[in-house]
Amino acid sequence: MRAIIDRFQPLAALAARLLIAWIFIYDGYVAIIDYGGVGDYMEANGVSRSLLPLAIIAELGGGLFVAAGLLTRLASLALAGFCLTTAVLFHAGSGDPMAMIQLYKDMAIAGGFLALAAFGAGRWSLDAVLFR
């Protein structure tokens, strides 16, 4: 069984990076095309819209770095922090069942990013090519 798992490890690591990065790439893109709406959402939750450019950089930039496997450990740590921060700022304490689902989702994604930070991007990544 271990040999089978080891054989597919590079593919699994690539798939994991692409799947976890996709939501951030997409959300960063949406924040750009609906800048006003996202800013309004932030302010409705007590977060200054002036932080939106930083959120876009974190989501879009961090997502692209993770997807490419470039500086993956650093980008993953940053995105884990981003997930935990958004969980607290936007979803914790509201009592709304949907907000609780979002809170748990953000925490789970942060856990995935921490696993990437711990184990790296895998063999099929720019990190593997550039930093052998």
From TrEMBL:
It is found in: Cell membrane. Keywords: Cell membrane, Membrane, Transmembrane, Transmembrane helix. The keyword Endoplasmic reticulum does not apply. Its main location: membrane. The chain crosses the membrane at residues 12-32, 52-70, 77-95, 107-126. It holds the Pfam family DoxX. It is a multi-pass membrane protein. InterPro entries: DoxX (IPR032808), DoxX-like_oxidoreductase (IPR051907). GO terms for cellular component: plasma membrane. Belongs to the DoxX family. This is DoxX family protein. It comes from Flavimaribacter sediminis. The lineage of its organism: Bacteria, Pseudomonadati, Pseudomonadota, Alphaproteobacteria, Hyphomicrobiales.
